[in-house]
């Protein structure tokens, strides 16, 4: 779900977005963002015809330096693009924090007893 949200957000940014014409099937295996370091990393899986992962590759963007790294190489990109991505990620941070507050306030309908205990634990109840 994080992947879908991230790409939905990034898809509306006003910066260069390449056409996805991969020579072989690939998928995003994971995306991680560190608000402290402003680094965005993701892992790409190259797929077999049966959709099983043949190999993985890790990419990293340092949004403060506006650089992208892969396989020991680094490239600079437009600072305006870095700022646009940072703004979207800041919105995701706000959403995550608001979701914690929502959870701690006991909002939503518990799906099971474990969910209810999780709400109580997050709120500091025994």
Can you describe what's shown?
It contains 3 helices and 5 strands. With 126 residues, it is an alpha+beta fold. It has one domain (2-122). Strands 1-2-3-4-5 form a 5-stranded antiparallel β-sheet, with no helix packed on it. The longest helix is centred in the C-terminal third of the chain and has 26 residues, at 79-104. It starts with a helix and ends with a helix. Residues 1-8 have low confidence and may be disordered.
Keywords, separated by commas or semicolons:
single chain; 126 residues; alpha+beta; flat
Instruction: Please state the structural category.
Output: alpha+beta
Q: Major sheet: order of its strands?
A: 1-2-3-4-5
What count of structural domains? 1
- Give Rg in angstroms: 18 Å
Label the overall shape.
Answer: flat
Helix % is 25-40%
Number of helices: 3
- Secondary-structure element sequence? HEEEEEHH
Low-confidence stretches: 1-8
Beta-strand proportion: 25-35%
What composes the largest sheet?
A: 5 strands, antiparallel
Gap from first CA to last CA: 31 Å
What's the β-strand tally? 5
The overall average pLDDT, rounded, is 83
């Amino acid at each position: 779900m994080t992947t879908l949200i991230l790409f939905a957000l990034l898809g509306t940014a006003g910066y260069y977005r390449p056409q996805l014409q991969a020579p072989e099937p690939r998928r995003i295996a994971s995306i991680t963002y560190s608000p402290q370091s402003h680094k965005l990393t993701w892992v790409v899986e190259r797929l077999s015809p049966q959709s099983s992962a043949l190999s993985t590759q890790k990419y990293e963007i340092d949004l403060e330096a506006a650089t992208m790294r892969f396989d020991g190489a680094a490239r600079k990109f437009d600072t305006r693009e870095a700022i646009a991505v940072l703004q979207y990620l800041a919105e995701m941070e706000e959403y995550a924090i608001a979701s914690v507050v929502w959870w701690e306030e006991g909002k939503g309908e518990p799906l099971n007893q474990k969910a209810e205990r999780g709400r109580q634990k997050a709120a500091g109840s025994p």
